[in-house]
Design brief:
Two copies of one chain form a homodimer. By secondary structure, the first copy, chain A, is an all-alpha fold. Chain A is built from twelve helices and no strands. Chain A has two domains: 76 residues, Arc Repressor Mutant, subunit A (Orthogonal Bundle); 154 residues, Tetracycline Repressor, domain 2, CATH 1.10.357.10. In chain A, helix 2 crosses helix 5, helix 6 packs parallel to helix 9 and helix 9 packs antiparallel against helix 12. The longest helix of chain A has 32 residues. Chains A and B meet through helix 1, helix 8, helix 9, helix 10 and helix 11 of A and helix 1, helix 8, helix 9, helix 10 and helix 11 of B. The structure holds a DNA duplex (30 and 30 nucleotides).
DNA sequence: GCCTGTACCGTACGGTGTACGCCAACGGAA
DNA sequence: TTCCGTTGGCGTACACCGTACGGTACAGGC
């Protein structure tokens, strides 16, 4: 996403004030907010330059006076969304021990991914390194500071937890988008797919997959349950980190 | 991705033979292979209908005789790539205990993600459920069969490991794409970014992030190292699963 | 040899990001 | 006050995307 942008230019924009208005009152902040509103409502694909400009009531090309291009706008959207994570007094490091702290970190990240289903579509490639991203890194690392891990281990453990959250959140976002685009709920889709799948699979033999798949699909009424995957995986990972500390 | 496709139509196509040729020798298999070659070489974005058709030497719209649309072509690409995972005699369940088996599963998935960097871009949304996907599910579940887990736990553990692999592989693929698009290696980019970041961060105070970030970036010569994240995370997760078994 | 179904494909439409160039409004100098 | 250089705003145009639609020409049944 933030691929073809000059690092210096992009960083300066990210760390800038975003509020200095032009002749018609147009600001970077307004552009980013409009783009986020569109993406929240209809997905990242809906946040096109034309639609963002229309929403503000401004010509498409006027956006380019304040923002170098689409890639940088995406970076700004991401850093703005990350700003919602630990605003105010909710310091993750103040939530008991490392285990409760890590769980809190995971849950806040999970929340923000659900609130902005486009977030994970907009990341990838080099990290953005805006002010809120750095603030987040600092706040989350403090949870693991001084509990007996090396600096590299702190970074690795945090990365592991965040990778897990991102993975299940991406799964959840994918299913939500599929539901919105197709109009079929997860249960509808599974009820429509399961019989066809069963018919097409006759003749082949999948003993374990058949048994396990049936068991889990009966519980979830779907092919997967990201919320359960989030909780289960987090417990296992925290247990693994516990063993690392011993 | 496989959003707007009729499940029945898509499943029938996935489980079909793919080799029945038309008048000009055009087959589904040839279309899918050409698309995969393009995606391997230049990323998923390069696998457009026009370029796939050009590569085969056929009119763009001729593809639509054999494939309903782009979404279904993506599904076919994914299932074909998954077919490379456990071809032949490499049964993951035959690699010692559950721990070695799970590690083998993770490594094979990691390998295929590196070989086809577009794979994770093409998934998401409802699962594809082609023959190779089901075969993969069966082979991977057998690793966890009969070691004392419930059916649901088997599914959850497998999902956890695969989510981890997908997460770090996605990170790796993102960095690789950024490198290809920008022409800058990870080291180049970090050397260009770090000083700007340091300058722009002066005035703010990030004690832990500064210390840890500097430590890990000096080791990785970058902002992240997916290969290390893969190995570290896998060990922690396997330890957590071990505790689950106790 | 003829007819019909269908594989193939040329054209066109509505969408995307953005390069380019024009116009008007503003700030400062004379 | 007048003038002019700078700059914010934006209309047009281009190259690309997926694909709906309709025309053409070939293969197989009679």
């Amino acid at each position: 996403m933030s691929a073809k942008s000059d690092p210096g230019r992009s960083l300066a924009l990210l760390w800038g004030s975003h509020t200095r208005p032009g002749r018609s009152g147009l600001t970077v902040r307004a552009i980013v907010d409009a783009a986020i509103e569109l993406a929240d409502a209809e997905g990242l694909d809906a946040a096109t330059m034309r639609r963002v400009a229309d929403k503000i009531g401004v010509g498409t090309m006027s956006l380019y006076t304040h923002v170098p291009g689409k890639a940088e706008l995406n970076d700004l959207m991401v850093d703005t969304a990350l700003g919602e994570l630990y605003t105010g007094v909710d310091d993750p490091a103040g939530h008991g021990g490392w285990r409760e702290g890590l769980r809190y970190v995971a849950e806040r990240n999970w929340d923000v991914c659900l609130r902005h289903l486009w977030l994970l579509d907009a990341t990838g490639g080099r990290p953005t390194l805006g002010p809120n991203a750095v603030l987040k890194y600092e706040a989350e690392l403090r949870v693991l500071d001084g509990i007996g891990l090396t600096d590299l281990q702190m970074d690795s453990v945090l990365t592991l937890v965040l990778t897990h959250v991102e993975g299940v959140a991406r799964s959840h976002a994918g299913l939500a988008r599929a539901q919105r685009d197709s109009g079929l709920t997860e249960q509808d889709w599974w009820r429509a797919t399961a019989p066809v799948l069963e018919r097409v699979m006759t003749g082949h033999d999948f003993p374990v997959a058949g048994r396990v798949g049936e068991a889990s699909s009966q519980v979830y009424q779907a092919s997967a349950d990201p919320a359960h995957a989030f909780a289960f995986g987090l417990d296992v990972i925290l247990d693994g980190v516990q063993r690392l500390l011993d």
